[in-house]
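Annex B.
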Amino acid sequence: MTSATVYDLATKDLDPPFAVVDLDAFDANGADLLRRAGGKPIRVVSKSVRCRYLLTRVLARPGFEGLMCYSLAEAVWHVEQGTSDDIVVAYPTADHGALRRLAANDRARAAISIMVDSPEHLDLVDAALGQGHPEIRVCLELDASWRPLPGVHIGTRRSPVFSPRQAADLARTILSRKGFRLVGMMAYEGQIAGLGDAAGGGVKNSAIGWMQRKSIVEIAKRRAAAVKAVRALAELEFVNGGGSGSVESTGAEAAVTEIAAGSGLIGPTLFDGYAHFSPRPAAMFALPVVRRPAPKVATLFSGGYIASGPTESSRQPTPYLPEGLSLLGFEGAGEVQTPVSGEAARHLRLGDRVWLRHAKAGELAERFTHYHVVIGDRVDRTVPTYRGESQNFG
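Alanine racemase: predicted structure tokens.
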């Protein structure tokens, strides 16, 4: 039985559009992340999942410890729901309301560490909470981009703290401020963790691979020095690094105590472009055929689920099953219709399903209120996404 037939059979009583999670694939991807981590704990990146059932399932597995949330409001919500009592908020917050909720909740303050990369972040917390506020746990972010030459920046634009000296200076500032406790450090090497090395042509792949090898050596040395400088001033509970694409290299660093990963659980299309690991597609969505404008073209209802990031074709969803379909360059994936073409379209009838995969791991959950969890040829359960729990964290 082909995968399309299995998924069609499992969901025969459902009307598309809808989204499914293949639980066997999800679990297998989790096992592969643990293998690649080589014994270091993995902090689960919630934005790549955005479904409490799936987050709770993976956190119950030995080797996965704690959440990394993208929003402070999201982190407080997870504490309130009992999802985790160990959460790092990966991005600085300017949400005064969420800060007040954090300060008012003893359990949340014990569980959540917020991200800072400048004294101004501390000032913002003071402005939101007032002087004499309860102690807030903070994590210092070190910029992990690669800067081989003056003015050349390769990687994500995150923290202004780049050198070990800058990290130590910020640590001293945090330690001098009442109402804050420095508990961790983080550095995300996006140019390694978030950039596939097998997605383009040979020359492009070689260039990316060369850059990543150089960057791995540089960040390992600089991160170790920064951690040493900060540990000389404060006891750190954790040093977090990496992402699904850099589990091996980040985990090999002695200075790193835990690895962040989430997209590797889902296996979106952007993760098809890595040479050293291949996650199974675990989440996909079905659209119905509603038109047959030509023998080799079928038009699907809806489908314009475009991923964030640079505007390019890699951010569009990809037809997955049946095999042999592709989007039309002129229309792409649209708000109300998505035409697909290919030899396989000849055999599609009105009402048939076409299965597509999203480019990014978590953003599919923003389009659907529920995931139908498939095991083999049956739907085991239907669970809410964040949207299905009426949560929208921006």
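The mean pLDDT is 93. The radius of gyration is 22 Å. Further annotation is deferred to the next reporting cycle.
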